[in-house]
Specification:
InterPro entries: RibonucZ/Hydroxyglut_hydro, Rieske_2Fe-2S, Rieske_2Fe-2S_sf, SCP2_Rv3818. With about 525 residues, the chain is α+β, with helices and mostly antiparallel strands. The chain contains 15 helices and 26 strands. The N and C termini lie far apart (about 60 Å).
Length: about 525
Protein backbone atom coordinates (compact mmCIF):
# COMPACT_ATOMS: atom_id res chain seq x y z
CA UNK A 1 0.00 0.00 0.00
CA UNK A 2 1.26 3.47 -0.86
CA UNK A 3 0.02 6.52 1.05
CA UNK A 4 0.36 9.83 -0.81
CA UNK A 5 -0.03 13.27 0.75
CA UNK A 6 1.09 16.74 -0.27
CA UNK A 7 3.77 16.44 2.43
CA UNK A 8 5.22 13.13 1.27
CA UNK A 9 4.56 9.53 0.33
CA UNK A 10 4.87 6.34 2.40
CA UNK A 11 5.25 2.88 0.86
CA UNK A 12 4.02 0.15 3.23
CA UNK A 13 5.03 -3.53 3.12
CA UNK A 14 5.64 -3.90 -0.62
CA UNK A 15 5.41 -7.66 -1.23
CA UNK A 16 5.68 -8.96 -4.81
CA UNK A 17 7.94 -12.04 -4.91
CA UNK A 18 6.95 -15.48 -3.57
CA UNK A 19 7.61 -16.15 0.11
CA UNK A 20 8.27 -19.22 2.25
CA UNK A 21 9.90 -21.67 -0.14
CA UNK A 22 7.88 -20.27 -3.07
CA UNK A 23 4.63 -21.27 -1.38
CA UNK A 24 2.89 -17.92 -0.84
CA UNK A 25 2.15 -15.41 -3.59
CA UNK A 26 0.29 -12.10 -3.26
CA UNK A 27 -3.31 -12.27 -4.47
CA UNK A 28 -4.43 -10.43 -6.49
CA UNK A 29 -1.13 -10.42 -8.38
CA UNK A 30 0.66 -7.07 -8.11
CA UNK A 31 3.87 -7.97 -9.95
CA UNK A 32 2.79 -6.19 -13.14
CA UNK A 33 2.35 -2.75 -11.58
CA UNK A 34 4.73 0.08 -12.47
CA UNK A 35 7.12 -0.49 -9.59
CA UNK A 36 9.78 1.77 -11.08
CA UNK A 37 7.43 4.66 -10.29
CA UNK A 38 5.74 3.27 -7.18
CA UNK A 39 9.12 2.74 -5.51
CA UNK A 40 10.07 6.42 -5.76
CA UNK A 41 8.82 7.46 -2.33
CA UNK A 42 9.83 9.68 0.56
CA UNK A 43 9.30 7.08 3.29
CA UNK A 44 9.34 3.29 3.62
CA UNK A 45 7.47 1.44 6.35
CA UNK A 46 7.89 -2.30 6.85
CA UNK A 47 5.68 -3.58 9.63
CA UNK A 48 7.75 -6.69 10.48
CA UNK A 49 10.14 -9.26 9.10
CA UNK A 50 7.69 -11.89 7.86
CA UNK A 51 8.63 -12.42 4.23
CA UNK A 52 5.14 -11.61 2.97
CA UNK A 53 5.82 -8.11 4.35
CA UNK A 54 9.60 -7.87 4.08
CA UNK A 55 10.36 -8.69 0.42
CA UNK A 56 14.13 -8.24 0.32
CA UNK A 57 14.50 -8.67 -3.44
CA UNK A 58 11.80 -6.13 -4.22
CA UNK A 59 13.08 -3.64 -1.64
CA UNK A 60 16.57 -3.91 -3.11
CA UNK A 61 15.54 -3.63 -6.75
CA UNK A 62 12.64 -1.18 -6.78
CA UNK A 63 12.45 1.03 -3.68
CA UNK A 64 14.42 4.29 -3.66
CA UNK A 65 17.38 4.23 -1.30
CA UNK A 66 16.76 7.94 -0.71
CA UNK A 67 13.60 6.95 1.19
CA UNK A 68 13.67 7.40 4.95
CA UNK A 69 12.76 4.19 6.75
CA UNK A 70 10.14 4.59 9.48
CA UNK A 71 11.55 2.03 11.90
CA UNK A 72 9.45 0.41 14.67
CA UNK A 73 11.04 0.22 18.11
CA UNK A 74 11.75 -3.52 18.08
CA UNK A 75 13.83 -5.33 20.74
CA UNK A 76 16.49 -6.46 18.27
CA UNK A 77 18.26 -4.64 15.43
CA UNK A 78 17.48 -7.30 12.80
CA UNK A 79 15.16 -5.19 10.66
CA UNK A 80 17.54 -2.24 10.50
CA UNK A 81 20.47 -4.56 9.83
CA UNK A 82 18.69 -6.27 6.93
CA UNK A 83 17.54 -2.96 5.44
CA UNK A 84 21.07 -1.56 5.63
CA UNK A 85 22.33 -4.63 3.76
CA UNK A 86 19.81 -3.79 1.02
CA UNK A 87 21.22 -0.28 0.68
CA UNK A 88 18.98 1.86 2.89
CA UNK A 89 20.85 4.45 4.94
CA UNK A 90 18.21 6.86 6.25
CA UNK A 91 16.32 5.73 9.33
CA UNK A 92 13.83 7.40 11.63
CA UNK A 93 13.57 5.30 14.80
CA UNK A 94 10.02 5.97 15.94
CA UNK A 95 9.64 5.90 19.74
CA UNK A 96 6.91 3.42 20.55
CA UNK A 97 3.39 4.90 20.62
CA UNK A 98 4.67 8.47 20.31
CA UNK A 99 3.50 10.85 17.59
CA UNK A 100 6.35 12.02 15.38
CA UNK A 101 5.91 15.06 13.12
CA UNK A 102 7.66 14.76 9.79
CA UNK A 103 8.19 17.62 7.36
CA UNK A 104 5.23 19.52 5.96
CA UNK A 105 2.84 18.66 8.78
CA UNK A 106 2.78 14.91 8.10
CA UNK A 107 2.47 12.99 11.38
CA UNK A 108 3.04 9.32 12.11
CA UNK A 109 2.93 7.02 15.10
CA UNK A 110 4.09 3.40 15.22
CA UNK A 111 2.93 0.88 17.77
CA UNK A 112 5.41 -1.98 18.10
CA UNK A 113 4.36 -5.33 19.56
CA UNK A 114 7.30 -7.21 20.98
CA UNK A 115 6.35 -10.59 22.43
CA UNK A 116 8.15 -13.66 21.01
CA UNK A 117 4.89 -14.63 19.30
CA UNK A 118 4.44 -11.28 17.51
CA UNK A 119 5.79 -11.88 14.04
CA UNK A 120 9.48 -12.83 14.17
CA UNK A 121 10.22 -10.94 17.40
CA UNK A 122 7.98 -8.00 16.58
CA UNK A 123 5.00 -6.72 14.62
CA UNK A 124 3.67 -3.20 14.31
CA UNK A 125 0.96 -0.82 13.11
CA UNK A 126 1.31 2.60 11.48
CA UNK A 127 -0.95 5.59 12.22
CA UNK A 128 -0.75 8.53 9.81
CA UNK A 129 -2.31 12.01 9.95
CA UNK A 130 -2.21 14.78 7.37
CA UNK A 131 -4.47 17.82 7.04
CA UNK A 132 -7.00 16.41 9.50
CA UNK A 133 -7.31 13.02 7.79
CA UNK A 134 -6.20 10.03 9.87
CA UNK A 135 -5.39 6.51 8.73
CA UNK A 136 -4.45 3.35 10.63
CA UNK A 137 -2.56 0.62 8.80
CA UNK A 138 -2.95 -2.17 11.34
CA UNK A 139 -2.03 -4.85 8.75
CA UNK A 140 -1.79 -8.18 10.61
CA UNK A 141 -0.72 -6.85 14.01
CA UNK A 142 -2.89 -7.93 16.94
CA UNK A 143 -2.74 -5.31 19.70
CA UNK A 144 -4.80 -5.95 22.81
CA UNK A 145 -6.77 -2.79 22.02
CA UNK A 146 -6.75 0.20 19.68
CA UNK A 147 -7.31 2.92 22.28
CA UNK A 148 -3.85 4.44 21.75
CA UNK A 149 -4.92 5.28 18.18
CA UNK A 150 -8.51 6.26 18.96
CA UNK A 151 -7.29 8.78 21.53
CA UNK A 152 -5.51 10.72 18.77
CA UNK A 153 -8.78 11.59 17.08
CA UNK A 154 -11.37 10.04 14.82
CA UNK A 155 -9.84 7.70 12.23
CA UNK A 156 -11.09 7.95 8.66
CA UNK A 157 -9.48 4.85 7.13
CA UNK A 158 -8.74 1.54 8.88
CA UNK A 159 -6.67 -1.13 7.08
CA UNK A 160 -6.54 -4.53 8.78
CA UNK A 161 -6.09 -8.27 8.38
CA UNK A 162 -9.10 -10.56 8.08
CA UNK A 163 -7.74 -13.78 6.54
CA UNK A 164 -5.55 -16.60 7.78
CA UNK A 165 -1.76 -16.50 7.75
CA UNK A 166 -0.65 -19.78 9.27
CA UNK A 167 -0.35 -23.52 8.62
CA UNK A 168 -3.09 -24.68 11.02
CA UNK A 169 -5.05 -26.88 10.64
CA UNK A 170 -4.22 -27.84 7.04
CA UNK A 171 -0.89 -29.59 7.67
CA UNK A 172 -2.02 -31.71 10.62
CA UNK A 173 -2.45 -35.43 10.07
CA UNK A 174 -6.13 -35.53 10.98
CA UNK A 175 -9.30 -36.95 9.41
CA UNK A 176 -10.70 -34.52 6.86
CA UNK A 177 -13.84 -33.97 8.94
CA UNK A 178 -11.71 -32.85 11.90
CA UNK A 179 -9.62 -30.56 9.70
CA UNK A 180 -12.78 -28.95 8.35
CA UNK A 181 -14.23 -28.46 11.83
CA UNK A 182 -11.02 -26.93 13.20
CA UNK A 183 -10.63 -24.78 10.10
CA UNK A 184 -14.17 -23.46 10.41
CA UNK A 185 -13.54 -22.58 14.05
CA UNK A 186 -10.40 -20.69 13.08
CA UNK A 187 -12.11 -18.94 10.17
CA UNK A 188 -14.94 -17.81 12.46
CA UNK A 189 -12.48 -16.58 15.10
CA UNK A 190 -10.57 -14.60 12.48
CA UNK A 191 -13.72 -12.76 11.47
CA UNK A 192 -14.84 -12.26 15.10
CA UNK A 193 -11.48 -10.68 15.94
CA UNK A 194 -11.72 -8.43 12.87
CA UNK A 195 -15.23 -7.25 13.82
CA UNK A 196 -14.00 -6.37 17.32
CA UNK A 197 -11.13 -4.29 15.99
CA UNK A 198 -13.45 -2.51 13.57
CA UNK A 199 -15.92 -1.80 16.36
CA UNK A 200 -13.12 -0.53 18.60
CA UNK A 201 -11.89 2.07 16.14
CA UNK A 202 -15.18 2.99 14.42
CA UNK A 203 -13.39 4.39 11.39
CA UNK A 204 -15.35 5.88 8.49
CA UNK A 205 -13.95 3.34 6.02
CA UNK A 206 -12.57 -0.18 6.46
CA UNK A 207 -10.09 -1.75 4.03
CA UNK A 208 -9.49 -5.52 4.17
CA UNK A 209 -5.76 -6.02 3.54
CA UNK A 210 -2.90 -8.31 4.66
CA UNK A 211 -4.40 -11.39 3.10
CA UNK A 212 -4.95 -13.84 1.80
CA UNK A 213 -1.95 -15.40 0.08
CA UNK A 214 -2.53 -17.70 -2.86
CA UNK A 215 -0.85 -21.04 -3.47
CA UNK A 216 0.32 -21.71 -7.02
CA UNK A 217 2.43 -24.85 -6.59
CA UNK A 218 0.45 -27.91 -7.67
CA UNK A 219 1.15 -29.58 -4.32
CA UNK A 220 -0.40 -26.66 -2.40
CA UNK A 221 -3.21 -25.69 -4.80
CA UNK A 222 -5.86 -27.18 -2.48
CA UNK A 223 -5.20 -24.45 0.09
CA UNK A 224 -6.82 -21.79 -2.13
CA UNK A 225 -10.37 -20.90 -1.09
CA UNK A 226 -11.93 -22.01 -4.38
CA UNK A 227 -13.09 -25.53 -3.52
CA UNK A 228 -16.21 -24.82 -1.44
CA UNK A 229 -14.47 -25.83 1.78
CA UNK A 230 -16.12 -24.10 4.74
CA UNK A 231 -13.01 -24.88 6.79
CA UNK A 232 -10.63 -22.98 4.50
CA UNK A 233 -8.84 -20.32 6.56
CA UNK A 234 -7.93 -18.12 3.57
CA UNK A 235 -11.15 -16.27 2.62
CA UNK A 236 -10.57 -13.43 0.16
CA UNK A 237 -11.66 -9.80 0.15
CA UNK A 238 -15.00 -10.51 -1.52
CA UNK A 239 -15.84 -13.01 1.24
CA UNK A 240 -14.88 -10.37 3.80
CA UNK A 241 -17.40 -7.92 2.30
CA UNK A 242 -20.10 -10.60 2.36
CA UNK A 243 -19.40 -11.63 5.98
CA UNK A 244 -19.05 -8.00 7.07
CA UNK A 245 -22.52 -7.28 5.68
CA UNK A 246 -23.96 -10.04 7.89
CA UNK A 247 -22.89 -8.09 10.99
CA UNK A 248 -24.15 -4.78 9.60
CA UNK A 249 -20.94 -3.56 7.97
CA UNK A 250 -21.54 -1.18 5.08
CA UNK A 251 -18.29 0.82 4.93
CA UNK A 252 -15.88 -1.77 3.52
CA UNK A 253 -13.70 -0.86 0.52
CA UNK A 254 -11.76 -3.51 -1.42
CA UNK A 255 -8.55 -2.49 -3.17
CA UNK A 256 -7.11 -4.31 -6.18
CA UNK A 257 -3.56 -3.75 -7.46
CA UNK A 258 -3.81 -0.35 -9.12
CA UNK A 259 -6.87 0.82 -7.16
CA UNK A 260 -6.73 4.37 -5.78
CA UNK A 261 -8.85 5.75 -2.95
CA UNK A 262 -9.02 9.50 -2.29
CA UNK A 263 -9.81 9.99 1.42
CA UNK A 264 -11.04 13.22 2.98
CA UNK A 265 -12.79 14.03 6.23
CA UNK A 266 -16.04 14.01 4.25
CA UNK A 267 -15.77 10.68 2.45
CA UNK A 268 -13.83 8.38 0.12
CA UNK A 269 -13.78 7.94 -3.65
CA UNK A 270 -12.23 4.82 -5.18
CA UNK A 271 -11.25 4.00 -8.75
CA UNK A 272 -10.32 0.48 -9.86
CA UNK A 273 -8.42 -0.91 -12.86
CA UNK A 274 -11.25 -3.46 -13.34
CA UNK A 275 -14.62 -3.94 -11.60
CA UNK A 276 -14.06 -5.61 -8.23
CA UNK A 277 -17.05 -7.97 -8.38
CA UNK A 278 -16.11 -9.07 -11.88
CA UNK A 279 -12.52 -9.74 -10.78
CA UNK A 280 -13.49 -12.04 -7.91
CA UNK A 281 -16.18 -13.77 -9.99
CA UNK A 282 -13.29 -14.90 -12.22
CA UNK A 283 -10.97 -15.81 -9.34
CA UNK A 284 -10.26 -19.37 -10.49
CA UNK A 285 -9.28 -18.20 -13.97
CA UNK A 286 -6.98 -15.54 -12.48
CA UNK A 287 -5.31 -18.14 -10.27
CA UNK A 288 -4.87 -20.60 -13.11
CA UNK A 289 -3.28 -17.92 -15.29
CA UNK A 290 -0.97 -16.93 -12.43
CA UNK A 291 -0.03 -20.57 -11.83
CA UNK A 292 1.19 -21.03 -15.38
CA UNK A 293 3.00 -17.69 -15.43
CA UNK A 294 4.77 -18.30 -12.10
CA UNK A 295 5.56 -21.99 -12.64
CA UNK A 296 9.16 -21.32 -13.83
CA UNK A 297 9.81 -19.25 -10.67
CA UNK A 298 8.61 -22.10 -8.44
CA UNK A 299 10.65 -24.71 -10.30
CA UNK A 300 13.78 -22.57 -10.15
CA UNK A 301 13.40 -22.17 -6.38
CA UNK A 302 12.88 -25.89 -5.87
CA UNK A 303 16.05 -26.62 -7.81
CA UNK A 304 18.03 -24.45 -5.38
CA UNK A 305 17.11 -26.32 -2.20
CA UNK A 306 19.25 -29.45 -2.51
CA UNK A 307 22.53 -29.38 -0.58
CA UNK A 308 23.54 -33.06 -0.31
CA UNK A 309 26.94 -32.06 1.01
CA UNK A 310 25.34 -31.03 4.31
CA UNK A 311 25.25 -33.59 7.14
CA UNK A 312 21.87 -32.59 8.56
CA UNK A 313 22.24 -34.28 11.96
CA UNK A 314 25.73 -32.89 12.49
CA UNK A 315 24.70 -29.36 11.50
CA UNK A 316 21.55 -29.41 13.62
CA UNK A 317 23.61 -30.53 16.62
CA UNK A 318 26.16 -27.79 16.01
CA UNK A 319 23.58 -25.03 15.71
CA UNK A 320 20.80 -26.11 18.05
CA UNK A 321 22.49 -27.78 21.03
CA UNK A 322 24.18 -24.58 22.31
CA UNK A 323 20.76 -22.88 22.23
CA UNK A 324 19.15 -25.79 24.09
CA UNK A 325 21.84 -25.44 26.78
CA UNK A 326 20.90 -21.78 27.26
CA UNK A 327 17.13 -22.29 27.16
CA UNK A 328 15.31 -22.45 30.48
CA UNK A 329 11.74 -21.29 30.01
CA UNK A 330 11.25 -22.41 26.42
CA UNK A 331 12.83 -25.84 26.98
CA UNK A 332 10.69 -26.37 30.07
CA UNK A 333 7.64 -25.18 28.16
CA UNK A 334 8.21 -27.68 25.35
CA UNK A 335 8.73 -30.37 27.96
CA UNK A 336 9.53 -33.24 25.62
CA UNK A 337 11.28 -34.32 22.44
CA UNK A 338 10.35 -33.00 18.98
CA UNK A 339 10.98 -35.22 15.95
CA UNK A 340 11.78 -34.33 12.35
CA UNK A 341 11.12 -37.03 9.78
CA UNK A 342 13.06 -36.18 6.63
CA UNK A 343 11.75 -37.66 3.40
CA UNK A 344 13.32 -37.86 -0.02
CA UNK A 345 10.62 -36.43 -2.24
CA UNK A 346 8.04 -34.05 -0.79
CA UNK A 347 6.15 -33.45 2.43
CA UNK A 348 3.05 -35.36 1.31
CA UNK A 349 4.77 -38.65 0.44
CA UNK A 350 8.03 -40.52 0.02
CA UNK A 351 9.92 -42.73 2.41
CA UNK A 352 11.56 -41.39 5.56
CA UNK A 353 15.30 -41.42 5.08
CA UNK A 354 16.30 -39.95 8.45
CA UNK A 355 14.55 -39.17 11.75
CA UNK A 356 16.14 -36.60 14.05
CA UNK A 357 15.00 -35.65 17.54
CA UNK A 358 15.46 -32.28 19.22
CA UNK A 359 15.37 -33.42 22.84
CA UNK A 360 14.45 -30.39 24.95
CA UNK A 361 14.67 -32.04 28.41
CA UNK A 362 17.91 -33.83 27.43
CA UNK A 363 19.33 -30.68 25.77
CA UNK A 364 20.59 -32.55 22.72
CA UNK A 365 19.94 -33.27 19.04
CA UNK A 366 20.21 -36.98 18.23
CA UNK A 367 18.84 -39.76 16.05
CA UNK A 368 15.28 -40.83 16.84
CA UNK A 369 15.27 -43.70 19.38
CA UNK A 370 11.70 -45.01 18.95
CA UNK A 371 10.35 -42.98 21.88
CA UNK A 372 7.16 -40.93 22.22
CA UNK A 373 7.56 -37.34 21.10
CA UNK A 374 5.59 -34.16 21.80
CA UNK A 375 5.54 -33.02 18.14
CA UNK A 376 6.45 -34.70 14.87
CA UNK A 377 7.18 -32.79 11.67
CA UNK A 378 7.52 -34.54 8.31
CA UNK A 379 9.16 -32.63 5.49
CA UNK A 380 11.51 -32.92 2.54
CA UNK A 381 15.13 -33.32 3.57
CA UNK A 382 16.19 -30.75 0.97
CA UNK A 383 14.26 -28.06 2.82
CA UNK A 384 16.17 -28.66 6.05
CA UNK A 385 19.39 -28.75 4.06
CA UNK A 386 18.51 -25.35 2.59
CA UNK A 387 17.70 -23.85 6.00
CA UNK A 388 21.05 -25.03 7.33
CA UNK A 389 22.87 -23.84 4.20
CA UNK A 390 21.39 -20.35 4.63
CA UNK A 391 21.99 -20.24 8.38
CA UNK A 392 18.27 -19.43 8.76
CA UNK A 393 17.49 -18.27 12.31
CA UNK A 394 13.72 -18.53 11.94
CA UNK A 395 12.30 -21.87 10.81
CA UNK A 396 8.77 -20.63 11.51
CA UNK A 397 9.18 -17.72 9.09
CA UNK A 398 10.38 -20.15 6.40
CA UNK A 399 9.63 -23.86 6.74
CA UNK A 400 6.43 -23.81 8.77
CA UNK A 401 4.72 -20.95 6.97
CA UNK A 402 5.52 -22.69 3.69
CA UNK A 403 2.94 -25.39 4.58
CA UNK A 404 5.35 -27.82 2.87
CA UNK A 405 5.22 -30.28 5.76
CA UNK A 406 2.83 -32.39 7.77
CA UNK A 407 2.57 -32.48 11.54
CA UNK A 408 1.24 -34.54 14.42
CA UNK A 409 1.29 -33.86 18.13
CA UNK A 410 0.39 -35.39 21.46
CA UNK A 411 -1.78 -33.17 23.62
CA UNK A 412 -2.48 -29.49 23.27
CA UNK A 413 -0.90 -26.87 21.05
CA UNK A 414 2.44 -25.84 22.48
CA UNK A 415 3.53 -22.28 21.61
CA UNK A 416 7.01 -22.91 23.05
CA UNK A 417 7.83 -25.33 20.23
CA UNK A 418 7.30 -22.62 17.64
CA UNK A 419 8.91 -19.94 19.82
CA UNK A 420 12.11 -21.97 19.92
CA UNK A 421 12.29 -22.61 16.18
CA UNK A 422 11.72 -18.90 15.64
CA UNK A 423 14.74 -18.13 17.83
CA UNK A 424 17.69 -20.03 16.37
CA UNK A 425 20.16 -17.29 17.21
CA UNK A 426 21.76 -16.11 20.41
CA UNK A 427 20.11 -12.68 20.19
CA UNK A 428 16.62 -14.00 19.60
CA UNK A 429 16.83 -16.75 22.19
CA UNK A 430 18.11 -14.45 24.92
CA UNK A 431 15.35 -11.94 24.21
CA UNK A 432 12.64 -14.62 24.28
CA UNK A 433 13.97 -16.20 27.48
CA UNK A 434 14.01 -12.78 29.11
CA UNK A 435 10.47 -12.06 27.94
CA UNK A 436 9.14 -15.32 29.37
CA UNK A 437 11.07 -14.75 32.59
CA UNK A 438 9.56 -11.29 33.01
CA UNK A 439 6.02 -12.54 32.35
CA UNK A 440 6.49 -15.59 34.58
CA UNK A 441 7.28 -13.28 37.48
CA UNK A 442 4.57 -10.74 36.74
CA UNK A 443 1.42 -10.97 38.83
CA UNK A 444 -1.85 -9.83 37.28
CA UNK A 445 -3.73 -8.70 40.37
CA UNK A 446 -6.79 -7.07 38.78
CA UNK A 447 -9.98 -9.10 38.53
CA UNK A 448 -13.17 -8.54 36.53
CA UNK A 449 -16.59 -10.15 36.59
CA UNK A 450 -17.75 -11.92 33.44
CA UNK A 451 -21.19 -13.47 33.77
CA UNK A 452 -21.16 -15.76 36.81
CA UNK A 453 -17.37 -15.72 37.12
CA UNK A 454 -14.64 -13.53 38.54
CA UNK A 455 -11.49 -13.84 36.42
CA UNK A 456 -8.17 -12.05 36.10
CA UNK A 457 -8.51 -9.16 33.72
CA UNK A 458 -5.58 -10.00 31.44
CA UNK A 459 -5.41 -13.19 29.41
CA UNK A 460 -2.49 -15.35 30.62
CA UNK A 461 -1.43 -15.87 27.01
CA UNK A 462 -0.57 -12.39 25.68
CA UNK A 463 -2.31 -10.09 28.18
CA UNK A 464 -5.43 -9.29 26.11
CA UNK A 465 -8.10 -7.45 28.11
CA UNK A 466 -10.71 -10.11 28.88
CA UNK A 467 -13.32 -7.47 29.64
CA UNK A 468 -13.30 -6.91 25.87
CA UNK A 469 -12.14 -10.20 24.37
CA UNK A 470 -13.41 -12.70 26.94
CA UNK A 471 -16.52 -14.78 26.18
CA UNK A 472 -17.89 -17.35 28.64
CA UNK A 473 -19.94 -20.39 27.69
CA UNK A 474 -20.74 -22.64 30.63
CA UNK A 475 -17.50 -23.16 32.52
CA UNK A 476 -15.23 -22.27 29.60
CA UNK A 477 -13.76 -18.87 28.76
CA UNK A 478 -12.51 -18.04 25.27
CA UNK A 479 -10.19 -15.12 24.63
CA UNK A 480 -11.24 -14.09 21.14
CA UNK A 481 -8.04 -12.20 20.38
CA UNK A 482 -6.22 -15.45 19.66
CA UNK A 483 -8.94 -18.04 20.34
CA UNK A 484 -7.38 -19.46 23.52
CA UNK A 485 -9.76 -21.35 25.85
CA UNK A 486 -9.67 -21.94 29.60
CA UNK A 487 -11.55 -24.24 31.99
CA UNK A 488 -12.68 -21.83 34.68
CA UNK A 489 -13.34 -24.38 37.42
CA UNK A 490 -9.73 -25.60 37.35
CA UNK A 491 -8.03 -22.61 35.70
CA UNK A 492 -6.43 -24.98 33.18
CA UNK A 493 -5.66 -23.73 29.67
CA UNK A 494 -7.39 -25.99 27.13
CA UNK A 495 -5.48 -24.59 24.15
CA UNK A 496 -1.84 -24.91 25.12
CA UNK A 497 0.53 -26.03 27.83
CA UNK A 498 0.82 -23.64 30.76
CA UNK A 499 -0.94 -20.25 30.98
CA UNK A 500 -3.23 -21.11 33.90
CA UNK A 501 -5.96 -18.55 34.59
CA UNK A 502 -7.16 -17.28 37.97
CA UNK A 503 -10.93 -17.62 38.27
CA UNK A 504 -13.73 -18.40 40.71
CA UNK A 505 -17.49 -18.19 40.72
CA UNK A 506 -18.84 -14.76 41.59
CA UNK A 507 -20.99 -16.18 44.41
CA UNK A 508 -18.06 -18.08 45.95
CA UNK A 509 -15.52 -16.83 48.45
CA UNK A 510 -12.33 -15.43 46.95
CA UNK A 511 -9.69 -18.20 46.98
CA UNK A 512 -6.61 -17.67 49.10
CA UNK A 513 -3.38 -16.99 47.20
CA UNK A 514 -1.39 -20.07 46.29
CA UNK A 515 0.54 -21.43 49.25
CA UNK A 516 -1.66 -19.74 51.88
CA UNK A 517 -4.33 -21.37 53.99
CA UNK A 518 -7.82 -19.91 53.84
CA UNK A 519 -8.63 -17.93 56.97
Amino acid sequence: MRIDTAAGSILCDPWVNPAYFASWFPFPDNSQLDWESLGQVDYLYVSHLHRDHFDAKHLRDFVSKDATVLLPEFPTSEMEDELRELGFTRFLRAPNEQVVELRGGLKIMIQALTSPTDGPIGDSSLWVEYDGVRLLNQNDARPTDLSVFAELGHVHAHMLQFSGAIWYPMVYELPQAAKTAFGKQKRDRQFDRTWRYIDDLKADHVFPIAGPPCFLDDGLWQFNDIHGDEGNIFPDQSVFISEYAKVGGTNGIVLLPGSVTEITTEGATTTHPVPVEEFFANKVAHLEEMRERKRPIIEAEKASWRHPEIDVLKEMKRRIEPLLDESIYIAKGVGGPVRFDLVGTDSSGGETIESIVVDFPGKQVRPYADEKVRYRFRTERAMIEHLLHLGEVDWVNSLFLSCRFSAARIGQYNEFVYSFFKCLSEERLQYSEGWYDEHERAVDAEDITLGDWVVQRRCPHLKADLSRFGVIEGEQLTCQLHGWRFDLSSGRCLTSVGHKIRAHRADAETPAPAGEAAS
